[in-house]
Amino acid sequence: MKVSLVGFGGMGHILLAVAKEQGIEVASIVDPDAEGATHKEINEESVGKVDVCIDFTTPEAALENIEKYCKLGKNAVVATTGWYDSLEKVKKMVEEAGIGLIYASNFSIGVNAFFRMVEKAAKIINKFPEYDVLALELHHNRKKDSPSGTAKSLEKILLENIERKSKVVEEKLGRKIEAGELHFASVRGGDIPGTHSILFDSNADTIELKHTARNRNGFALGALKAAEFINGKKGFFTIDDLMKELI
């Protein structure tokens, strides 16, 4: 399998190193500004000979990049978030182009195992109204979106499985929180790769589920597993499809 790395920031460099460890050939690196990139644009010259494009770019560029993958007939792993309001549009584009695309808010295998643990815990806590639910995520000071895509996925899991919670509040609260609200706070600073905590709190005790990324290698490894998964496939897939195959 030959891949193209689209976006050569911090994650792109890690992805290149992990790909070499895994014996996966990186045939091109596409970035308009980064030193070390082999090409500045997504076109036939830069990605024509690769099997899968792995996109770690920016929310502003993601949708335009996906359109280019469709036009060039290239399968893609899209690890960039911030474009999910266009999901139905992208799904239609992918189906019409006959390519394969897999996306996720977070490609870390550990995080996706964490999602499944949180889902099971939420279903249990749903039976015990004595427990309130709250959440917190921490990320490095270079992260451009807040809350993170991972936090958004966790919010969805909690709302779908805890009946007494009907709304997420992400901003600062200058008032008493309502009973049906779930407060999911975001903090940015330092060099934290990513920490997500879910707390179930009662008068008697606190249950905390926490995922802490030690580094960003897990994201890269998951994205490469996704590339192997999507190689040769047609259709619109999510990380759930990959996890079902792995589990």
Describe it for me?
The mean pLDDT is 95. The chain has two domains: 2-107 and 217-246, 3-Layer(aba) Sandwich (Rossmann fold), CATH 3.40.50; 109-212, Dihydrodipicolinate Reductase, domain 2 (2-Layer Sandwich), CATH 3.30.360.10. It contains eight helices and eleven strands. With 247 residues, it is an alpha/beta fold. Helix 4 (87-97) links the parallel strand 4 and strand 5 (100-103). Helix 1 (10-22) crosses helix 7 and helix 5 packs parallel to helix 6. The longest helix is centred in the middle third of the chain and has 17 residues, at 109-125.
Write the layout of secondary structure elements.
Blueprint: E1 2-6, H1 10-22, E2 25-30, H2 44-47, E3 52-55, H3 59-72, E4 75-78, H4 87-97, E5 100-103, H5 109-125, E6 132-139, H6 149-161, E7 167-169, E8 181-188, E9 195-201, E10 206-212, H7 217-230, E11 235-238, H8 239-246
Parallel strand pairs: 1-2, 1-3, 3-4, 4-5, 5-11, 6-8, 7-8
Antiparallel strand pairs: 6-9, 9-10
Helix pairs in contact: 1-7, 3-4, 5-6
